[in-house]
Sequence to fold (438 residues):
Amino acid sequence: MPSNPLPKDRDIWRIAAPMILSNISVPLLGMVDTGVTGHLEDAVYLGAVAIGSTIFGFLYAGFNFLRMGTTGITAQAHGAGDEDELKLILGQALIVSMGIALALLLLQIPIATIAMPLLGPEPRVALFANEYFSIRIWSAPATLANYVLIGWFLGLQNARIPLYIVLIINITNIILDLIFVLILDMKVAGVAAASVIAEFTGLIFAIFCAHQALKHRGGRIVLSRLSKLPEYTAYLKVNAHLLVRTMVLIFTFAFVTAAGARLGGLVLAANAVLMNMLALISFALDGFAHAAEALVGKAVGAKNKKALQQTVRLTLKWSLYVAALLSLFFIGGGKILIRLLTDLPDVIEIASQYIPWFYVLPLIGVWSYLYDGVFVGATRAREMRNIMLFSTFAVFLPAWYVFQDLGNHGLWLAVTIFLASRGIGMHYFYKTRVLASL
Fold:
């Protein structure tokens, strides 16, 4: 019988609370970027930053597997008490992240050449958006390394350091935004430069924390293992599945945006507001998914089935409580939130018609958000990929085709069915694969 104590509620919150706080700081930064450029003399600057931020949002979201994959594998090594493996994982993950960053820097011109026409900005906006892109692309090494280090600390069940990393990045970014744009009048270049400097500032702090953590841990790292490609097989295999899963998820929400655009400009704008509300659900619930990643990974690494079951029960319990609160919030304050996000009367009127979907979306989506964390911790990336592929191409797209005559209501019905499909599929595989493996 495993001797490790079973997780308790405080163990869940010890990880979930810092991650929820760090999630909340992300939209604040976006608001500042929008605010400083929105007060310049020409709207072209606001549009350029919006275009540039969209490109990097998709680009970096695609590489978020570096964070998830590192968390799961690290948590399992932590649970197994394998100090050598913990150090090897960090070294491998940083090397992989630097390889990807180098590729992005070398391919920056082709990436920009492909991305700009897809988003279709007018010539003046495109000019400044290219300026933003050419500066911010140099944040790639720091951004991707930060993904790895945040994932590594989460795998060690340390959520405080990731919180500090994110806060340092975002606070530095906000301060430099104000200095570069409002005082030095650097406009778009100032916003991009602020992001680059902020990411490297966060990385310096993260490396210092990692160095301190490694000094106090046992084990050793065999440098020759870092130069042998077969040693990377497990890490790359997990991350390849996570990459496909993430790309399909990005495709799904890009399709939602495109389908809304075909329904008219006002519907597109209304859906942009509603997608911010969907992001709010994610920000609130992802903290418990992060807790599941760390604690499930530790339980799997220790081959402790009872700890695994207890972790899922507790994280699901708190996720459901928060999801219910979110539903009540949208019932009582959904229209108020829409007015905070936009002051355009037509957009407010249209977006308000679809608020009822958010009465149920938190309670339907909570399962997929939580099980993402469970599967990351269990390093069941292949199953995550397959469920995402099925839910998108065999459920979401057919549902939209069947219900498209309902207009935007049909689109949000398809989104709801998509989230339900993911939750059901992952619950089935949790019961039949994850639990059965211990």
Summary: The chain has a mean pLDDT of 90. The longest helix spans residues 265-301. The radius of gyration is 22 Å. Residues 364 and 420 are 6 Å apart (CA to CA).
